[in-house]
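Study the following:
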Amino acid sequence: MEWQELNSDKTVMVHVDSDELTWTKASQATKGGVWRKMLERKGAEVARATTIVRFDPHQEFPRHTHHGGEEFIVVAGTWHDDYGAFPAYSYVRNYIGSSHTPKIKEDGCTILVKLRQMSKTREEPEKSSWSLPALVDLKMGKERDVQKFPLFSSPLERTYAIYFPKGTMDKILPIPPHGLEMFLLAGCIKSELGKATSRIHTKWSWSFFPMLLAAPQKLFISTDHEDGAYAWIKEGHLDSDEVGV
């Protein structure tokens, strides 16, 4: 693969509707049934990247080492590797130097994965994982307000999931000084950043709000979707000394 820079400028706001992207085959797959949609990329085959990867049933991926770290959230199916089985809405961090052999079973698996975006200055366990509530449980639960589920946190970054129930109107989501990115796991939202920027975020869309030189700004979130909206958030990370390329 040739060198590529896609949505890699950390000073530019980006919104990607993954439904508009085409699945391309991953060349490393041993059985040919691994596909990806590139959201963000800087590098060649080795790259700082954010990607949606789909594994067809009964697929394997060669054993590999994460020289810049790997984090992913399972958005469909079940992930299987040396460390165990991780169902949908599992968030996993494989620290720099870790390695594994993905072996996907009969239900297939789709993940949002980020590569080479960890730091050597803040060591982490080789493997960390978190389980998030299923969408059906959030919809059927008694809680009718926005729910936030903290995941990983360090001085360099914070990750969490957030659920906006149907009927949410103009809920404030602050954008911290060192940026925020959002991947919509399910449902649909409308976001407004001031009066000039309004967007519709559909399932598996990815948005990137850059480092702000002025005071922190606010996103206003609304949804009238039957499922509400379930999102994964990563924030405050754009000034970290990540491995990169």
